[in-house]
Structure formats: C-alpha cells, structure tokens
Recover the amino acids of this structure.
C-alpha cells in the first residue's frame, strides 16, 4: 500500500530534522534542488527518440534511474510545500479546475495559439 502524501511529508521532515538539515530547507534552496532533480530526470531522456523514450521503463537500469529521479523530484516538491504551507493536492485540483475552464473541450486546436495568446500546455 502506498503511503499518503502527508505521511511522506512527515517522514521527510523527520529525516531532515534528525540530521539538522532544516536550516538549509528554505523555499529558495528547495526550489533550486527541485529544479536540479527535474533536470536530472530530463537528462535520462535527453538524446532518446520519442519511440525510445516511450520504452524507457522496459530496461531495468533506466527504469531504476527514472524511478529514483521521480522520487527525488517528489521529495523536494513535498518538502517545498511543507515549508510554505501549500497543500499540493489542493493546488493541483485548483489548477485542473482553472485549466478546464481555460481550455474547454472543442476549443482551439492543439498546437495553435488561443485567442488570448496563452500557451496550450496546462501549466
């Protein structure tokens, strides 16, 4: 059974506290670490074709690398949210709601610009 996000945040917090790392877990440092870990995830896919990237989980070595980097990204994101008091699931739900209003089904074609000049990728 997968642990819930709050339990994982508590484990991460306890891990950092046991090592006296909290002074370093500032929003700026955690955001930077998150960016570095996301870049390490990108690096795995850097020179792969779209077809190769779709099969990256087929090889145990690369699957393990992907899982490790996903874990690192999620760990830093959860720590970042904990420090700033952001509920990541509530933030995601609110963002999905905004994107559903912003990009209605049957709206502009994928890859084209919306009338307001905004991008079409849900960010």
């Amino acid at each position: 059974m997968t642990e819930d996000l709050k339990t994982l945040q508590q484990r991460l917090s306890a891990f950092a506290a046991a090592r006296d790392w909290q002074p370093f877990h500032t929003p700026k440092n955690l955001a930077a670490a998150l960016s570095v870990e996301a870049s390490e995830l990108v690096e795995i896919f850097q020179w792969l074709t779209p077809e190769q990237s779709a099969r990256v989980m087929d090889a145990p070595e690369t699957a393990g690398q992907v899982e490790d980097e996903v874990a690192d990204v999620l760990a830093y994101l959860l720590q970042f949210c904990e420090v700033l008091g952001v509920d990541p699931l509530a933030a995601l739900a609110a963002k999905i709601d905004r994107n559903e209003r912003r990009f209605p089904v049957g709206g502009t074609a994928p890859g084209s610009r919306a009338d307001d000049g905004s991008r079409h990728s849900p960010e």
Summary: Residues 108 and 115 are 9 Å apart (CA to CA). The mean pLDDT is 90.
